[in-house]
Amino acid sequence: MLVWCAVLFVLGVLAFMDSLFNYGEIFRQVNSVLFMLVSLGLLIRTTTKIKLRTVEGYMERIKQLEDELLTLRHPGHGKTTRRESVSS
Length: 88
Hints:
Layout: H1 2-21, H2 25-73, H3 82-87
Helix pairs in contact: 1-2
């Protein structure tokens, strides 16, 4: 994502230089289309990462709840006390 932000920065610098030095109409059209496409790509990538992180959070919470449920169903499951480990 850092690379795409750098690309947007370079396109912004080129657009600024175009406004100062007037490179031409074709440059403005190409630069604006590139800027729009890179911005769209960043937007899609960011929303995808947000959704992925949300799903990962749900999966972690489900795992935690399953562990709690297993502990409630079988109170001694997974926990060994000192006496159990010594006597075994």
